[in-house]
Amino acid sequence: MKIINSIAFRLIVATLIAVSVLITGMSTVSYYNQKTLLEERQQQQLQHAVSRLELNLPTAVWNFEQERIVNILKSEQASEHIAFIEFINDKDEVSATAGDNKTPQKMSVPLVFVEDDESSSIGQLAIYIDDNSIHSVLGDLLMTSVIEALSLGLLIILITYTLYKMLIAKPLLKLTLALENMDRGQSDLTHRLHVGNKDEFERVSQGFNRFVEMIQAIVRAFQQSVAKTSIQAMQANEDARESIQLIEAQQQETDQMATAITQMSSSAGEVASRVNQTAESAEQARKDTQAVALILQETVTSIEQLALQLKSSEHAINSLDENVQGIVSVMDVINGVAEQTNLLALNAAIEAARAGEHGRGFAVVADEVRGLAQRTQASTLEIKEKIDGLRTSTNTAVQSTLASFELSATAVDNAKRSEASITDILDATSSISSMSEQIATAVNEQSHVAEELSKSVNQIVSLGYDNTESLNKVSDTIQALLSLSKDLDELAQRFIT
Predict the structure, then answer these.
(1) Alpha helices of 106-169 — where are they, by DSSP H?
(2) Distance of alpha carbon 85 from its chain centroid, rounded?
(3) DSSP label at 184?
(4) pLDDT score for 58
(5) Which residues cross the membrane (predicted)?
(6) pTM score, whole prediction
């Protein structure tokens, strides 16, 4: 433990602070009282000196006795409170001095000569006050006070420490040793503190003894409980071991039965799966056959509609060819008109050239008309070429339509024959699907029973494993309890009861 945290250190520091404050206050009061006394004495002596100077010096000054003036000043300057004196005449001239150095403190005294009840000013005195004697006395007093304070403080500290050791430290040490003994191995709970003086430590000792008695009773009861717990834990551990052995034997028999049932369930499940696959395949074949039949019916209908559409297309193409022939006739007329327009525009341009300047505007219009006629001729030629190509394509389409009509008639006959065969296939697949469903139902019922039995047995096996695991956990818990009881017993044996 650090000394700064000890009670003795804190008590000494508190005492030292209190004594220091007290002595400092007393020394301060004494210092200022002595200072006041010395200053009053100094003022009295200065007043006496001034009175003597006012009595003796005016006559010597009036009679111009310079030597006597100097002697009077020197005799008064010899005082410990006067550092320097100078006489200033009525002309403000320094006529006599006494002393070596001037001080900041100065006192002026006017001098008056009285003769036959008449007063005459003859000058003034300047007295410079010397405080060195007062400072010396006060310094000695301060040093003495410090020495006395230190001596008294040291004495009080020694007295306080001695009283602390006798009245506090010794009883406290006994209590501390008793408490530390509780923290060591083989702690003696039978030990009691001695109750002596009628003070605070007696109350602490009594409280400590009552606390130890309570701890002693608790430890005794704790030791008995630990012993009983150890015995019961050992018995429970033996019972758990026997239960684990019985459950393990039962578990082996149940595992064998569960394996056999699982194999049977697996075989039945596999058979049911195969039958279900067969039934599903037959059903799928029936559905596919029905779909094919529907598709064939739709195909026959579509081909018949296609034949009708092809017939209509043939008539439409023939009508288109007639219309195209009419367009060709119109284009021939347009081409003839364009040639006539071109000739007229050419004649108009020639006439405009003959007219000269007056026919220039007409010539421009004639050129535009001729250009338009030429473009019209070019367009009609291009349209005619495309119409010729269209007529060729139309003839080809007519021939293809006739060929497609013949093929559609053949496809309708083949589709009707295929529809009869598909009807026979539908009857066969329906019969296979019905028998497969009956077989699958029987096998599924057998498989379901086997699965339920397998689940029940597996549940029994799982519960057996859970019981074994629980008993193992109980056994581990009991082992931990035994270990804990042993540790608690070792801890309890550390106390002497």
Answers:
(1) 132-164
(2) 87
(3) S
(4) 87
(5) 7-32, 141-164
(6) 0.36
Burial, 265: exposed, middle or buried (Cβ in 10 Å; 0-12, 13-18, 19+)? buried
Average predicted confidence (pLDDT) for the chain: 75
At CA 275, angle to CA 274 and CA 281, rounded to 5? 90
Q: Tokens at residue 429, please?
A: 């697949």
Residue 407: pLDDT above 70? no
Q: Count other Cβ atoms within 10 Å, centred on residue 448.
A: 14
- Is residue 296 within 8 A of residue 418, CB to CB? The reply is yes
Could you read off the pLDDT of 194-218 as tens digits, one per residue? 656 666 667 777 777 787 778 778 8
Angle at 142 between CA 134 and CA 158, to 5 degrees: 165
pLDDT digits (tens, 9 = 90+) for 342-377: 777 777 777 777 777 766 676 777 677 777 767 777
- Are residue 270 and residue 150 in the same domain, yes or no? no
Q: Residue 216 domain-assigned? A: no
Label residue 93 exposed, middle or buried (CB < 10 Å: 0-12, 13-18, 19+): exposed
User: Which CATH number do you get for residue 353?
Assistant: 1.10.287.950
Asked if the model's pLDDT at residue 341 lies above 80, the reply is no
Q: Name the domain boundary from 142, 170, 198.
A: 170
CA-wise closest residue to 324 among 397, 384, 402: 384
**Closest listed residue to residue 418, CA positions, set 295, 286, 301:** 295
User: Residue 4 carries which side chain, given as an amino acid letter?
Assistant: I
From CA 346, how far away is CA 352, in angstroms rounded? 10
Same domain, residue pair 162 and 298: no
Q: Same structural domain for residues 429 and 318?
A: yes
Do 158 and 304 have their domain in common?
no
Is the residue at 183 inside a domain?
no
Q: Are 288 and 400 contained in the same domain?
A: yes
Strand order in the sheet with 82-89: 94-99, 82-89, 118-129, 106-115
Q: Looking at the structure, do residues 122 and 262 belong to the same domain, yes or no? A: no
Q: Does residue 100 lie in a domain region?
A: yes
d(C-alpha 244, C-alpha 467), whole Å: 8
Find all residues with CB under 8 Å of 482, minimum gap 6, and list them. 230, 233, 234, 237
Residue 54 has a pLDDT of 84
> 336: helix, coil or strand?
helix
Q: Are residues 302 and 433 in the same domain?
A: yes
pLDDT, tens digit, 9 for 90 and up, residues 91-126: 888 888 888 888 888 888 898 888 777 888 888 988
**What is the spatial distance between Cα 305 and Cα 363, in angstroms, rounded to a whole number?**
64
Residue 78 lies in a domain: yes
My answer on whether 263 and 399 are in the same domain is: yes
Which of the pair, 61 or 229, is modelled with greater confidence?
61
Structural domain span for residue 356: 255-479
Number of domains in the chain: 2
3-class secondary structure, 192: coil
Residues 207 and 449: beta-carbon distance below 8 Å: no
Distance CA 232, CA 121 (A): 128
pLDDT in tens, 161-193: 888 777 777 777 777 776 676 655 556 666 666
